[in-house]
Batch of 3 targets.
Target 1
Amino acid sequence: MKDLQFARHRRLRNSASMRSLVREIHLHKEDLIYPIFVVEGENIKNEVPSMPGVYHLSLDLLKEEMAEVSDLGIKSVIVFGVPKEKDEVGTQAYHEHGIVQQAISLIKENFPELVVIADTCLCQYTSHGHCGIVEEGNILNDPTLDLLARTAVSQARAGADVIAPSNMMDGFVAAIREGLDANGFEDVPIMSYAVKYSSAFYGPFRDAVHSSPQFGDRKTYQMDPANRQEAIREAESDVMEGADFLIVKPALAYLDIIRDVKNNFNIPVVAYNVSGEYSMIKAAALNGWINERETVMEKMIGMKRAGTDLIITYYAKDVARWLNEE
């Protein structure tokens, strides 16, 4: 045994302090983006049935929620709206006094230090649940672009720091960039949902915003989960059109895509840890099958290790608390 030569890897694992010293990947509160669902009405705080711990909030309760987010050290939120009224062209998405526009104004007035990201899409606002104008069962690409640009401008006018278009229409980044620039918002960045797969993991979110398609599905504009090279083509188009961030959605089943995007583009990459990924862990934890904290923190590190710079996650408040405890 004296002549046996082999590496002593365990030397760097023999205590918590040593493991911390040589740790390669670190998760910070600044990496987290917290999604919020804002609804019309008063004194509303209703838990989303398929997303325990996630709530619909009316504007009068939003300030309390944002105070908690700010106190935890989270620096950014992304705002989703659930309007009372919907129509075929999603009018409430770009209404100057729409629910998202009101929420953005309220947050920026009371918490100017928070980075407020506006989700820019039509599906929550259309009666048919699709992300664009529909004609004879077809989702029309080019006519939708004007409405997306109008939505982005109205959100920027309300005070949004970042526009995050999630619709997957061809040319949506170019149209929104042109609209923002033409209205004096040249400095407002675009966080593009550049790589968005047609995923089964979105189910609980669609419950939260009541946006399930009333006919068909979204496979004609969201990506096939089997495709990898397509992700690079989509991301490259958005970068050329002026995107400042690239989102990959979902996250956990697409860690290889996150790494591909990170390797190919030198702008921040954002992982969207989506509703189905959240709900699976939450359900297992509530049944006592897994350790929730350890499981969540492991998946956060996994996304960071894959190459993401920022993480949109419904677990943001919990993760921030756990990091504060550490």
Note: Residues 63 and 106 are 8 Å apart (CA to CA).
Target 2
Amino acid sequence: MLWPSLLPLVLLAARAARVAGVAASPRTFMHTDPATGSSVECARCAPGNYLRSSCTATRGSVCARCPSGSFTELWNYISKCLRCGACGHNQVVKTPCAADSDCRCECKPGYYKRDYDMCHPHRECPAGQGVLSKGTADEDTACRACSNGTFSAAVSAHEACSLHQSCDAPGTQLLLKGSSWHDSVCTSCTELRSRDGADYLKEILPPFFVHQKIHIKRLRRILQKLLSESGQKRGASGLDRADLHARINAWIASAKAGQIREVPAILTRMGADGAAERLRNKLQSIDSNLNELCDLRNEVDVIVMSGRK
């Protein structure tokens, strides 16, 4: 039994032996001259060629170039070149087939090699995680959780975490602190009387549904309920997750503040109690902060007016 520490050395030695064997492949072969019956040593054909006719006691081997679509990679005495290979599923040609080499394949963009050279899709980082390193033809995407002060609102194999907006522009105030899956929500004094708290919740609803990872069957029922509550009759059955999120986002974009406020209750009726509670807490936080900001602004107005008197 080989010691574990020696196994890598043995494997390396075996690989080196194979490489050396290819490099030192024989350049001749023995052949029986049909005219004399004697054994003669014939030259092999170089890579990119095949043996058209063997040597005899009076003439040498006759080689010919491999026709298009075929190849030989070694010194040989075969009578026909090998047919060029074809790339497999989700693969593209990296190096075309040539007379002296078969084609080389690699995974097409968006895929990487795994499990007996099969190509698999790159992993997509979920909302709340960003891309640490993008996938290649040989490596999968690497993800990492967004650190404090950063977020990722999308499911993506390309996007890194982004910094929360700072809400430090003149007249702008922080309304809702950002999390790992949504940006900070800012407001300004001019918006306080013109917008409902649900209008601000609307900004984070698309990434909210992505982040919650609600089971697809329940997500279909939620979409159907949202549509029916809005008087729409389009069905949601058969839609995949990407289509469901697209349809939910379209509903959010057209929904009024009152409809947005009903979303937590709809989630509860559809059995998504945890998601409903988290969304309700977000809305309560927004409403509470809006009231505080409004009260603060009114106090400032009173002080200014008192000063004018």
Note: Residues 198 and 258 are 7 Å apart (CA to CA).
Target 3
Amino acid sequence: MSDSDRTIVHLMRHGEVHNPAGVLYGRLPDYHLSDLGRQMAERGAEFFADADVTHLVASPLERAQETMEPIAKTLGLSVMTDPRVIEAGNQFEGKTFGVGDGSLRHPSVWWRLRNPARPSWGEPYTQIAARMLEAMADARDAARGHEAVIVSHQLPVWVARLTVERRRYLHDPRKRECSLASVTSVTYDGDVPVAVAYNEPAGDLIPAKLRKKFVGGA
């Protein structure tokens, strides 16, 4: 594979969000990075500082835009906002999610969990995959022969990876390899994805309790 045929699209998850109420914030506005999240974003800028990045894309949500800010500043590039890489739709948005004191204590919502393979409580995995792969293809074309960075969210990044690796969508959310401010890198030979790599530039900043906690709206 020659350098002119090799393009890398990096899918970065945003940093930690200030969310004292512990709700599934999903696509809700005004959820910004915490102080720790901003440190994570700076780690992202350090990670890409010497990379051959020529194209930047971010979800329209504040936490993604704020994660991209130091990267854009470091690289001296403008950022394209792409709604196709936004967080997945979720019917539990704005609510806490748990059995003891969250939404799951109400039997009236249990029907939403009837089909985890779709999933029945939110945007279908197939729909997430379609929009993410379209956005990745456009980023690949814009950065042809170089590298692009897309700042998105946990579930869209994970579904994109499952699709590229031809794995099934049904999975345990607690086992997603997509930590805060992580980078999932897809290498293309021409238009064909040929490799996936995973890095955690801010891995040492993530508290143990966050590593163990599944956050559905991230």
Note: Residues 98-112, 213-217 have pLDDT under 50 and may be disordered.
